[in-house]
């Protein structure tokens, strides 16, 4: 079978409802789906159906108590969980498990050779979720669990995560900071001006993971040039030296100049150029094995533009 680009999606992802005016709304995935349907991209990609991640896997990074509290909060009909920005509904627990399982399904497809690379149009997002804390619209850390799945299910020894969401992926960093088999690179808005306030350059990993976290905080107002310079001069050399066998992208499109949540000035050309660099890295080091996982991005038009661009890069990579 010729190599393909996978697309993880399931209409059940729309069931997670964090509240009427919440920016992380179901329409995000509908806007993306509508775009790729309209422009014919859907005919060129393989739909990968997600599954609910088994609890034994989620428990590798999240406390059983925390998982159970989240499940009960949903079952009891609560409207928020732990923090006001983490709105929930009765379906949120199941759908959060389906988001983790969407990443697993994409990894399975790439590792088993049915896809060369894949994009996961999943929600809720994950990179702020900590071991026992929901934060920033996130409940389970989809991408960190994906990295652990690659290490333990497939026996890989070097997995890179590139996080270009405008917000620092505090959860991903903290869950994996002692793990030298995962290199975490984050480009984000300066924590002094932007949520969640972590991701300073001095945070470089802990214990055996010292040196496997690279934070590149960028001043508010940074645009394509600043992002690309940081990636090209600081990020890519370190990633190449790490020589990953598999590359994961925590793809937030909220550093775009027209996104309402932060203060960066990226354009979709800047996002495309960053995506091309990471696609190239995956081809050089990892036989092209790349899975991109959606994080933030709250302007529907911008989100659809950026995801369409990114899918075209993935398609052109094989
Ligand atoms: Zn974000």
Note the main attributes of this structure.
binds zinc ion; eight-stranded parallel sheet; alpha/beta; Arginase, Chain A; 318 residues; 9 helices
Question: Ligands bound here?
Answer: zinc ion
Q: Which strand order do you get reading across the main beta sheet?
A: 2-1-5-10-9-6-7-8
Q: What sort of overall outline do the alpha carbons produce when their principal axes are compared? A: globular
Number of strands: 10
Low-confidence stretches: none
CATH superfamily: Histone deacetylase domain
Helix content: 25-40%
Q: How many domain regions?
A: 1
CATH class: Alpha Beta
What portion of residues belong to β-strands? 15-25%
Distance between the termini: 12 Å
Number of helices: 9
Taking all residues together, what is the mean pLDDT? Answer: 97
Please tell me the CATH architecture by its name: 3-Layer(aba) Sandwich
Topology:
Elements: E1 5-8, H1 27-38, E2 46-48, H2 55-58, H3 64-75, E3 80-81, E4 83-87, H4 92-111, E5 117-120, H5 142-153, E6 159-163, H6 170-176, E7 182-189, E8 213-218, H7 224-242, E9 246-251, H8 268-285, E10 290-294, H9 300-316
Parallel strand pairs: 1-2, 1-5, 5-10, 6-7, 6-9, 7-8, 9-10
Antiparallel strand pairs: 3-4
Helix pairs in contact: 1-9, 4-5, 7-8, 8-9
